[in-house]
From TrEMBL:
<dbReference type="InterPro" id="IPR039901">
    <property type="entry name" value="Kdotransferase"/>
</dbReference>
<comment type="function">
    <text>Involved in lipopolysaccharide (LPS) biosynthesis. Catalyzes the transfer of 3-deoxy-D-manno-octulosonate (Kdo) residue(s) from CMP-Kdo to lipid IV(A), the tetraacyldisaccharide-1,4'-bisphosphate precursor of lipid A.</text>
</comment>
<keyword id="KW-0472">Membrane</keyword>
<keyword id="KW-1003">Cell membrane</keyword>
<dbReference type="GO" id="GO:0043842">
    <property type="term" value="F:Kdo transferase activity"/>
</dbReference>
<protein>
    <recommendedName>
        <fullName>3-deoxy-D-manno-octulosonic acid transferase</fullName>
        <ecNumber>2.4.99.12</ecNumber>
    </recommendedName>
</protein>
<dbReference type="GO" id="GO:0009244">
    <property type="term" value="P:lipopolysaccharide core region biosynthetic process"/>
</dbReference>
<keyword id="KW-0812">Transmembrane</keyword>
<keyword id="KW-0448">Lipopolysaccharide biosynthesis</keyword>
<keyword id="KW-1133">Transmembrane helix</keyword>
<keyword id="KW-0808">Transferase</keyword>
<dbReference type="Pfam" id="PF04413">
    <property type="entry name" value="Glycos_transf_N"/>
</dbReference>
<comment type="similarity">
    <text>Belongs to the glycosyltransferase group 1 family.</text>
</comment>
<dbReference type="GO" id="GO:0005886">
    <property type="term" value="C:plasma membrane"/>
</dbReference>
<dbReference type="GO" id="GO:0009245">
    <property type="term" value="P:lipid A biosynthetic process"/>
</dbReference>
<dbReference type="InterPro" id="IPR007507">
    <property type="entry name" value="Glycos_transf_N"/>
</dbReference>
<feature type="active site" description="Proton acceptor">
    <location>
        <position position="63"/>
    </location>
</feature>
Length: 388
């Protein structure tokens, strides 16, 4: 290793030792019980079996899903996928590929095998990943690359570090011209703007449900504190409107927590409540969807989608293409910085504060359904991936 890489590696070991007690505690939490042991202790997380393959690295659920149109073209290639989160890992396992959690950086020099390509999605910038993969012969491609408004100042403060990291990258496919200019400011080269690859994803439902005769509102991909604002708004709206609310929390480990909150609201407002995994119908006023893989099916029978992740400042929003595809009238918050590029392509969205959701529900009656007017050409990206 070069001196800087040795220093970086030493710091990563020290940080691991310092964080060890916290990692042990977190590994008992439902959200991390699989990912932390795999990433930080290599539990059931061996090296990839294949070598000279095409390796994709993604963070979580959304990025793993975004791979589908590309992987559909690579059916004859050896494909590897590494992930960070448990939901991303579960999604990646649906593909015909070897799937692993990406280990913590101090393990990578002993874990990474020689591969043909390493394609890293969005903002997964790990110095040892890039350094070791490159040293083992992989060509490194950044795909769907972005630097959000919220994080750009952080990147610029450490421009000296990111310049070193980005020197190891062969080509960057950026989401927008803004992202391209930010990468250029960090010293990156060979950058092309292709747009957001999530625009190429095939959006479909997996089951056919009969829409209730009343108005249906779905709260999709919600996070802590967001549900309370949505419930307050829903019951204010329901005073003068016949409507049902379907709630689909972003993280499955929160199902019980959200259900307990819904019970409190149901009692206060004399409303009916059900878990979809048990009732399998839409007869109640409030329905908790406590099953994975159902969100698109709920969008398909909904009139209005309240899209979570943007009503609080630390998440960055969620993909609006799915509710727009099914013609939902979209209401979301103003903190959608991670999805800014996608929202640019979706029309007729209401961006509101937490205390404005009830007013937005009323305004939705006068608005047309949301819609997407954009396409993306993945051919240059596919050609580069298949290039010898």
């Amino acid at each position: 290793m070069k001196p800087f890489s040795l220093l970086y590696y030493f710091v990563s070991v020290v940080l691991f030792i310092v964080a060890l007690p916290l990692l042990i505690v977190l590994s008992f939490k439902q959200k991390y019980k699989e990912s932390i042991p795999a990433r930080f202790f290599l539990f059931k997380n061996p090296k990839f079996n294949a070598t000279n393959a095409i390796w994709f690295h993604v963070c979580s659920l959304g990025e793993a899903r975004a791979l589908k149109p590309i992987l559909d073209v690579l059916k004859n290639e050896k494909v590897l996928i590494s992930t960070i989160t448990q939901t991303g890992h579960n999604e990646a396992r649906k593909y015909d590929a070897e799937v692993r959690y990406l280990p913590y950086e101090m393990y990578l020099p002993f874990w990474i095998k020689p591969q043909k390509k390493l394609i890293v999605l969005e903002a997964e910038f790990w110095y040892m990943l890039f350094s070791v993969a490159r040293a083992r012969g992989a060509e490194i491609i950044l795909l769907n690359a972005r630097i959000s408004d919220k994080s750009v100042n952080k990147y610029m403060k450490f421009a000296w570090f990111y310049k070193r990291l980005l020197q190891k990258v062969d080509i960057i496919y950026a989401q927008s011209e803004v992202d391209k200019n930010r990468f250029l400011a960090l010293g990156a080269k060979n950058i092309e703007v292709v747009g957001n690859i999530k625009l190429a994803a095939k959006i479909e439902k997996t089951k056919e449900y009969v829409k209730p005769e009343c108005e249906v509102i779905v709260a999709g991909s919600t996070h802590p504190t967001e549900e309370k604002s949505i419930f307050d708004a829903f019951f204010e709206y329901k005073r003068n409107n016949d409507a049902k609310l379907i709630v689909v929390p972003r993280h499955p480990e929160r199902f019980d927590e959200v259900y307990n909150l819904m019970e409190m609201y149901a009692k206060e407002h004399n409303a009916t409540l059900s878990r979809f995994s048990q009732a399998k119908n839409f007869e109640s006023d409030l329905i908790l969807v406590d099953m994975m893989g159902e969100l698109n099916n709920m969008y398909a029978i909904s009139d209005i989608a309240i899209l979570g992740g943007a009503f609080k400042a630390d998440v960055g929003g969620h993909n609006p293409l799915e509710p727009a595809y099914f013609g939902c009238k979209i209401i979301t918050g103003k903190h959608f910085f991670h999805q800014k590029e996608l929202f640019k392509y979706v029309h007729h969205v209401q961006y509101v504060e937490n205390d404005e959701i009830a007013k937005a529900l009323q305004s939705a009656k006068e608005l047309p359904p949301s819609m997407v007017e954009e396409e993306i050409n993945l051919k240059p990206v596919i050609n580069k991936i298949l290039e010898d």
